[in-house]
Every structure is written in structure tokens, then in C-alpha cells.
Amino acid sequence: MLDPAAWRDVPQEVSTGSLPGWDRVEEIVRNAHSRYRGERGGTVADYIPVLAEVDPELFGLAVIEVGGGLHDAGDALHPFSIQSISKMFVYALAIQEHGHERVREIVGVNNTGLAFNSVMAVELNDGHPMNPMVNAGAIATTALMPGATAVEQWERVREGLSAFAGRPLSLDGVVYASEAQTNDRNRALGRLLRSYGRLSGDPDEVVDVYTRQCALSVTAHDLAVMGATLADGGVNPVTGERVVSEEVCRDTLAVVASTGLYERSGDWLFEIGLPAKSGVAGGIVAVAPGKGAVAGFSPRLDEAGNSIRSQMAIGYLSRVLGLNLFASAPARREASATAPSPAPQEQS
Ligand code: GLN
């Protein structure tokens, strides 16, 4: 494991660009929505019975700028359950509470390369969850929430995610009941972690808090505000409230960059170049540090459980808004003039 002592005394400099003006962003968000409105690929999640009943045509987009600019298109205010996207924000709250090193030790920071509900991933790693953005790691993370009882832990999660969203979030009772009746697999994961001594407390109670956190009701607009808080050094750009520290944002986004779209996280980072988290109800939020966040909602998913239309629209927005973290251009014009030209093609 890398020893962070190597650079602990080195200050963290921040390099950020800026978004185009408000009008231009507004136009780009509308274009993104109309461009992918007709996309029908993928299927809605059905392993949580009530999710199978959702209207698959719903499609919302939202962009929130760190300066407070808001942009919504389509069904950006339609409520749906946050599902796995909660993992990113509960993880941030856990680091805020326990610190970078302790959470890294307990939950890990690496992609398992396996499906989000994989039992094998736990078995292959001696019960260490490895990845806080899949179910086992997220259950272990939820167990770290402060509180003497499961009820207190759940309140802490709900309050924390509400602070990220800038409004009180509530439980979707129908989604919670549907998932609570069918989540044998998550209960199995909780007990498996416990059998390895990786989970303190009653595993069924921890899984119940986790199931509730997944059933919190949000909109694409909420997700973009939540993501923009992580893009804004931990201060909610709409309410002005500090939710977590700058270091917590950095740590959370670094983990999410390589894990946020499950076993497809590499494809995502390669194509879109932003840390992002998806959930099986069809939401995705991508975070552009120092600039803002982009959220999509569309229920049809790929095989890994990621909304297809949200991926397409966020990919478009990442390009047009210049958000890809890996994209650069020469700093000085002369640099491009003197750049070596590509090797000539061989004549055949
Ligand atoms: N609540 C869901 C589960 O635990 C979340 C999974 C997801 O969004 N990928 O299975």
C-alpha cells in the first residue's frame, strides 16, 4: 500500500477551468436532451419488483454550476430512488467522520471488477470489501455511520444526504418495502462480512439502513446539486452550507472515478473522463471538480446496471462543456506550431 506520508506536508494546489456562460450552458443542456430523447436501448431493472413498473420513457437532465447556475431539461424534477448513488455520499460522510486512512483500511479503494452485488468479490478478498461503491463495501460503509442505534444511523444518513441536496430528502416507502422483501442477497452479504469480522453491529440492521438509504427519493436536479457540492470543495453551491471538507471531496471523487459504474468504470472514464456514480433506478451523477455536476435520469439500463441514455447525454455534455479531466490543449500557441508532426504514412 502506498504510504501517504510521502506527500503529507505538500499543499494541495487546485487547477480549475470554467464553464461557458449561463446562456450557453442552458442551450447545451437543452440540445443534449433533444439529441437523446429518442434513444430506447436497454431494459429497466426488475430485480427490485417495484422498479419494473416505472415509465421507461422518463428522461431528465440537470447541470448545476459551482457558481450557483441551475439548468434542468425534460423530467429533471421527476422523483426516483437514489439507489447506488447514495453510496458515494454516505462514503463521503464516513470519511468526514473517521478520516481518510481508517475508511481506506476498513472498506478499501479498488474496483473489484465484478458485479455490484457480487458475493464472490468478498470471498476472493478474505472478506475485505475492497470497493465502497458496490453493495458489500457500501454496507460496510453504512455500518460506520455514527449513532447508538440503527434508527440514529439512518437519521444521520438521511440528514447528511439532505444537506448535500439542499432540501430534506424523504424515504420512498414503496421502493423500500419492495426491496426489503426481496434483498436476501444483500442480507447474505451483510452476514458474510460479519463472518469475516469485517462488520460490527447486527448485519440485518445495517442492511436495513443501507436499504433505506437506497430508497431515498431524489430528482436529477437533486443529484446535480449533490454532485456540485462535491465539485465545490464540500460547500453546497445552492444553500452555501459546508457539508464535508475539501479533502473528503477529493478522496470521494478519486474512489468514484475508478468504481462508480461498477465493472464498466474503465469504459466510462475512458469515454467521459469524469468521476460519476450510477444507480439501478436510472440516475447517474458526474462531477467536474471546480466546475459543477451533471446528472441524468432515464430508467433503461445496460447489463452492468447503468442508465444508457444518461451515459450518452452526460458523455455529450462532458465533451461540449469541456469537462473531461484528461483533456488538454497546449498552454502556448507556439507549442502547437512546433509540435512534431505525425510520422508519414508508409507508401504501399
Ligand atoms: N439497492 C440496490 C441494491 O442493493 C442498489 C444497487 C444499485 O443501484 N446498483 O441492490
Describe the protein.
It is a single chain. With 348 residues, the protein is an alpha+beta fold. The protein has one domain (17-325): Beta-lactamase. 44% of the residues lie in helices and 9% in strands. It has 14 helices and seven strands. The protein has helices at residues 22-36, 85-98, 100-107, 120-124, 135-142, 150-165, 173-182, 184-195, 203-214, 220-231, 246-259, 265-272, 308-320, 333-337; strands at residues 60-65, 70-74, 80-81, 217-218, 276-278, 283-288, 292-297. The strands form two sheets. It has a five-stranded antiparallel sheet, with helices on both faces. Strands 3-4 form a two-stranded antiparallel ribbon. Helix 8 packs across helix 9 (203-214). The longest helix has 16 residues, at 150-165. The model has no long low-confidence stretch (mean pLDDT 93). Glutamine binds next to loops. Keywords: Hydrolase. This is Glutaminase A. It is an enzyme of class 3 (hydrolase). Its EC number is 3.5.1.2. It comes from Microbacterium maritypicum (Microbacterium liquefaciens).
